[in-house]
Amino acid sequence: MFEYEKKDIVDRYVQDVNKIGLWSSEKEIFTKFIHKDDSILDLGCGAGRTTFNLYNMGYTNIEGIDLSVDLINEAKKLADAMDCNISFSHMDARELKYDEQKFDCVFFSYNGLFTIPKYEERSKVLKEVWRVLKDDRLFIFTSYDRNGNSKYSDFWLKEKELWENNQHQKFLYEYGDRYVKFNENELVFIHVADDLEVEKMIKEQNFKLEYKQKKSEICAPSPQETGVYGDCIFYIVRKMG
Ligand SMILES: C[S@@+](CC[C@H](N)C(=O)[O-])C[C@H]1O[C@@H](n2cnc3c(N)ncnc32)[C@H](O)[C@@H]1O
Questions:
Q1: Is the entire prediction scored with pTM above 0.85?
Q2: Distance in Å, CA 112 to ligand 1 centroid
Q3: Quick one: pLDDT at residue 155?
Q4: Whether 220 contacts 99, CB under 8 Å
Q5: Domains of the chain, with CATH numbers?
Q6: Atom of ligand 1 nearest to the CA of 71
Q7: What is the phi/psi pair of residue 14, to 5°?
Q8: What is the pLDDT of residues 128-144, one digit of tens each?
Q9: Nearest protein Cα to ligand 1, atom 13
């Protein structure tokens, strides 16, 4: 079963739409880089935490897609309940059903890109984002940083050794992969990339790095998000011709 269709996970993402809302860093980034009338595609939108709250900020030309049927159904229910005219579709970010050059901005929030196992599969997302973005427009996403937290340095050093000696856990695909506790009952997959890997992927798919900043260095988190989300890096990359 796709992990983002498990009940606990779906319930939490539905709650987050109103309980957490936008991260203060997300608000700051959008205010600085994106015009209010830009057309925005919210990839991996879940139940719509970012979609609804960006809409409420005035980014009304926004739509959301997600691979989880259950999360998209919840987003649609919320849109009906809030009488909010946002289109939500079940779709795979690796195979977008849009014509080329449709959007001014594409967003993949909360490290969603790195919930997709395998480098080549994540690269497919960038390829598709490149295709549906208008020329010179921006893709915004976030990633955990393997080198960004000294608390985990020993863990990653040991992991590296295990991978080099082919002693890693066989259900993992690449060095950097982890299953983390979502709550008492559920584990979720995440690939913890390092900067070199992210920059390689960006370059290979013909994007130019425009901006890179740690979430914690952009601004203080809102009281609602404090303690709920770890630190990560915001990447803003521009489609090159
Ligand atoms: C960490 S959650 C973030 C959800 C939401 N953006 C938020 O911030 O509340 C990652 C989301 O990416 C979605 N996802 C994973 N793989 C996907 C894919 N290939 N295409 C579209 N969505 C995907 C998951 O279903 C999940 O909703």
A1: yes
A2: 5
A3: 96
A4: no
A5: 3-146+191-239 (3.40.50.150)
A6: 27
A7: -65, -45
A8: 999 999 999 999 999 99
A9: 44
